[in-house]
Amino acid sequence: MAVKRLNTAVTTWVTLILTTFLLVACGSNGLGGGSVEVVKSPNDSRDYRYLQLDNGLKVLLISDPTTDKSAAALDVEVGSAQDPKDREGLAHFLEHMLFLGTDKYPKPEAYQAYISAHGGSHNAFTAFENTNYFFDVEPDYLPGALDRFSRFFVAPLFTEAYVEREKNAVYSEYKAKLKNEFRRGYDVFKQELNPEHPMAKFSVGDLKTLADRKTADGGEDKVRDDLLKFYAQHYSANVMTLAVLGRENLDQLEQMVRQRFAEVPSRKVPSNKIEQPLFAKGKLPGLLQIEPLRDVRSLSFAFAMPSQRDHYHSKPELFIGDVLGHEGEGSLLQYLKQQGLAEGLSAGSGMDYNGGALFNINVSLTAKGEQQWPLVAKAVYQTINGMRAEEVTKAAFEEQQRLMDIRFRFQEKRGAMSTVSSLAGLMQLYAPSDILAGSYLLDEFKPRRTAELLDYLRPEKALLTLTSKSAKTDKVTVLYDTPYSYQKIDAATLQSWQQAGTNQAITLPAKNQFIAEDFTLLNAKAAAQPPRLIGDDPRYQLWFGVDQEFRIPKGVLRATMKSESVQQSPAAVVKLLLLAAMTEESLNSYSYPAALAGLQFSVAASNRGLDLSVSGYTDKQSLLLGEVLDGLTADSYDEQRFADVKDELRRGWLNVAHQPPYRRLVSELNRSLLATNWSEQQLLAALGQIKLADVIHYRQQFLSRVNLEVFAYGNYTADQAEGYANMIADRLAVKPGARGELAVTELPEGKNWYRDVEVKHNDAAGLLYLQGRNDSYQERALMGVTAQLLKSPFYSSLRTEQQLGYIVYGAPKVTVKVPGLLLLVQSPSVSPSKIEVETVKFLQGFADRVAAEGVSAFERQRQALVSAVAKAPENLSEQAQIYWQQIELGNSAFDTREQLIKAIEGVQLDDWLAFYRQRFGGSIERSLWLQTKSQQAPLLQAKPIVDIDRFKSQQRQFHYR
Fold this sequence. Notes:
By secondary structure, this protein is of the alpha+beta class. The strands form 7 sheets. It has a 7-stranded mixed sheet, sandwiched between helices. The protein has a 6-stranded mixed sheet with strand order 3-4-10-5-7-6, with helices on both faces. Helix 17 crosses helix 23. The N terminus is likely disordered.
């Protein structure tokens, strides 16, 4: 199925205009008494203060008394672009090393252990120009977390003993992504960049680029020495931005920050502007051909242009991306689909850095499009020519203003950690007053700027990339072993594109009919209530709930149609998948404008039936729902598109074998546990025989006997909800039938099992799944506490200390209601047998470790788990999803969270130790070990599963209606 998504420019750069809806938050800026007004959304209840410390560090404080988590992020304006040419990956290596001890907290696990023990998480990433560090934690423990966090930027140790270890971690990270298609394509792209441009460098690093080595004069060039030099040269307060969110008021947060970050040294580092051109003279126009590992087909265009950072009030590239990426009537994508050339398309600003930018267009090709890709390119250039002929109109600008004003006005709260990480990055781009609003601002109508940018989107200025299994290649990259070729576009082809003119079938987007106009809150005076069954109709059950927490003119409408017929065979599953895909395909002209207007819909096959959803602003939902129902009940669908959709499914299932090992094992675990879960091979076998007429016939059969359940939560009245339910039942002409059930395989008590999994990757991986004895709240609490206790030590032991691999985690695994524990390692250097040995060894010694740490440490971890379970939803969609999940599991009391918290709080250390020692401390039972293919059998005295379907049919099951 073609992916339905907004183009990059639209999703990344939204706008704001009507100043009547702006609010401001004022506070001291730390520069002698003035104030900076930080513009915020009227729907934002948080308080903000911008300030700058004496050392130049820019700070955004965020006070939110209701937050479940406090969080902080620090962004440094230094990334892989600043790597020395002879030390590629150094910025990334520094990011790894920074976590491993400081003057005040020298132990390498001090920061991670503190965050984990207090219900938090942490991470970091190294980008081209920035490195971003972030964490969240239970609100009471923000001061302690900030204290540890701040020392990274004041006095890190970069302990020599850990250098070799972290080099291996960086190398494992590189090896884990060797077969990642994006990394492989990016590696090829870099080969043809200007070698003097920083983007051409290897940003990850490996054992060679980070090795200690001899200098020309016989001296020592140690990577740690280069690391210290790099840190001293680039890590300066004046190029850092810090965002901190907590329950405390702004004055308390400011004091907290000043006490800890005033010591960050300022070295007056200048801004890193890149002067070199991205492409060397004479390189363009060019064509790259890449042979992928997976069966994918795409044609992409890359155009270098000036940075647009200073034009965030007018965002000229937004309009180019909007037209090129549009999917509605008269769009480029619709034309390409009608010609049988494309399956999907995205367009927008792909990268914008201090000194330049890239504009990208990516077209997913059909088999025909792969063969006739020059025609696809011609259509792209015809669309660009059409935009040159018609300058951006004031009406189009005002529609974008209207859309973005709506988005800003009704902006919903995001999680604490994602909020601070994002804002710390945006602080590097926008004026202090625009930190929150800058991504939404569109208050300058500058059509000539858009016209000027279009001049960079010419055939002679493009680097095209054709990715295809039939690509003609003559080179192989060193780092990612990717076959590719490069050639200049020949003069005849270039001339044909330059003279392509315009295409009358491709037009500018029409007026968007889905933009909301009425934002009335329909339940303004009603009491909040969880969903309840209303209505009296034998064709469906209707759940209706009133929101008073988020108070926005949005709603979530869902309808699920469950049938026993879905579980009868792989063919039934495939027909339902094709029905959902063809429905969405037939609605392609509506999906893009609806999404722009804040409306989403989906028609998706599940393991029990068909799920239909419409969400977003409620004003135009009835219009969109009508179109969706028309699409689902269409008399016929396009035969060519049906063939293309079948091909997409086929390639998707064939490509599963190329998933990273850890993902493949998790996927196979789900297949092992769910009683009716067909393999890709079974689905592929069924797919080949199915015709469009079979899908239409199955739709009639399916709808003739379904259990229809409708859910409406948000800005609806009860009458509206009932009207929607009747509309769905009437238009689909559903007849009541039995609902299918979910069944989870119960692993036999006292036994262990294993499966080998075929993976096309050099890394080995092993996954140990330990199943709970039942699905009671007590068992779920015990397994959950176990996961909370061991996740950080398991990571520290197998990844940090033993260096088994980059991907290491322990986590709870709940299947429907059945609790379990999952321990997973992917390694570039050791076998599945070694992973199993160390995993079991860790498990068997873990109870003594917890007992030695004592009651207070246990209770602290237990409370961290309670806080995680008790976390309130951040927005209306999350709340609706929580309610819907409980309806799906038959809990009309909606008290799952409360029951689970009660059970967790009842788990005492002695109870847990007795449970753990019985289940995991000695001989491990009721387990399933999944491993990438190995010559050695597991050590757990496990029995092999040769036929998973037969195995599941022979076991007892947990059943859920």
